Each structure stands twice: as structure tokens, then as C-alpha cells.
Amino acid sequence: MTTPLNLVLVALDLLGTFVFAISGAAVGVRHRLDVFGVLVLSFAAAVSGGIVRDVLIGDTPPAALVGWHYLATSCLAGIVTFLRHEDVEKLRNPVQIFDALGLALFAATGASKALAFGLGPVPAILLGMLSGIGGGIVRDMLVAQIPVILRSELYAVAALAGAAVIVIGKSLSLPDVPMLVLAVGLCFGLRFMAIRFGWRLPVASSRAR
Known about the structure:
With 209 residues, the chain is an all-alpha fold. It has one domain (4-197). It contains 9 helices and no strands. The protein starts with a helix and ends in a 12-residue tail after the last helix. The model has no long low-confidence stretch (mean pLDDT 87).
């Protein structure tokens, strides 16, 4: 049955697909890939987190592989970025900004979908985080970069915070849509502030002996 919440989740999922695809395509352009390589990278960045999420909760085959909307959305974002990459690059830190928005959207929708499939609070938070970081990991690995999550930046922590808001809101029976907005805003805000002000997690110090 289609409900307003389901429609909101699908809309956010497609929006997350679009912005993650832009981040993937922008990385592809920066690495001077051809148009096919850019589209592959945009699709991989856009759907990898969602595919992992759906497989883990048993929603198979994954929505990204069943519905044509996800492929079409990622290809559209990839083509636009390939053709208009100079305009995309005019945005400050475009890859990081689009990546931050995709992270926030997928963390929120991932946690919501996990709860809908009967997972408990902690697994739902972890799955929300995994939904958010999966696309970025695959994108970076395909171009032989160290994934952002393995650096000291606030990335997975922001996704955890956004997913936690969804779980807390559900446990307190708060309205779904406002909590989705709050979760996306918190995750994006944390990630944006980390980019803007260089917020980082502590790094282990090494001393030469």
C-alpha cells in the first residue's frame, strides 16, 4: 500500500541517487575517464549503498536493480555532469557537497527502511550508516583512492547521527516526515561543517624508534 511516508522515502531515495551520482561522475571527470567510465562511476556511487541495504534486510532483488528509475536517474546525473562539469566545479568542493547530501539522504532512508522491515534500533542505525557510506566507498575504490570513511574526517559519524535521529523519533512515536527532515539536516550539517572547518576525528600518533 502506498502511503505518504512511502512516497517521501522513494522521493528521498531518488534524490540521494541523483546527488551521489553527481559526486561519482565528478570524480570520474576529474580522473579523465571517458563517458562510459563516468556513467559507470556515477551508477556505482549512486546505488551501491542501497543495494547492500536491501540485500541485508532481505528486500531482494534490490530496488536499484529492479526499477528503471535508479539507472535513469544516475545516468541523467552522469551525463549532465560530463557535459557541464565546468559548471559543477564552480560549486565549492562540489564532490564533497553532493556526497554529503547523498550521505544524509541515504542514512535517513536506510534507517527508515530497516525499521520498516522489523530491525531493532541498533541494527537500524548501523544499516542507515552503511546505506550512506556504501556508495562513497565503492566510488573511491574504483578510482584507487582511500575511501573517505577510512580517513579522519567526520563521515560515518555524521551518518550514524542522522540514522539515530530516525530511530529515536520512531521509538518516541514522533511524526515521520519532520524526523526525516531533521535527520537529513543533522547529518548534512555535521558533514558540511567538517568540510568547512576541517573537523576531524583523532588520529593515532606514531613515533619513530
